[in-house]
Amino acid sequence: MTNTPTTYNVISSDKVEGTAVYNRAGEKLGSVDDLMIDKLSGQVRYAVIEFGGILGIGTDKYPLPWDTLHYDVGLDGYGVDVDKEQLKNAPRYPEDRSPEYTPEFGRTVYDYYSIPWYL
Amino acid sequence: MTNTPTTYNVISSDKVEGTAVYNRAGEKLGSVDDLMIDKLSGQVRYAVIEFGGILGIGTDKYPLPWDTLHYDVGLDGYGVDVDKEQLKNAPRYPEDRSPEYTPEFGRTVYDYYSIPWYL
Fold first, then answer.
1. What is the ipTM of this complex?
2. Single pTM value for the model
3. Contacts from A99-102 at CB under 8 Å and sequence distance 24+?
4. How far A35 CA lies from chain B's nearest CA (Å)?
């Protein structure tokens, strides 16, 4: 993966919402709904994904650890290595009932995707 | 600075816009208008600030390197160590004419605030 001169490296938080998310086969799974950013370090910790498209699993929001996403310059979107089976029991919430992102909740999310918890 | 149990550590990108920015004296200078996020690492590189309030310097947008901001739990906002004099010649742009965040532009911004360029 290389950075092309025309994409540069940064994206406005305004524009992240709606950025497409793809699986390994390059099929669009859904899009980024929101980002959860560490207030102190400025590091994005979670991408909150709305899966739809080929998965057809409703409109719940799925927080994914940032490290499960890989930006793909060619697709101009994010690739994720998760499949539908894995999402069946994944942490999720309805749009109007966002939980507190407590350390306990965060650890649950990170553990689910086998990403080392960062605290 | 400590993290309190009630603020936790993350903030939605949706809510970052509008987060207040203060000077060292605790006076509100303006607010965060947007964030520029590294697509690959997920690290916030710039906070785009709209200074108003006591500075009264119009509605231009001022990109600041993330490391010039310090989250203040007590204020529930960001503190910056910049004064009005320093902003007089600072990189800025009108809202409707956002530049490309090229490496050259980024380096200009980082150099202006004496923050080491990250590439």
1. 0.79
2. 0.82
3. A100/B8, A101/A36, A101/A46, A101/A63, A101/B8, A101/B9, A101/B10, A102/B8
4. 5
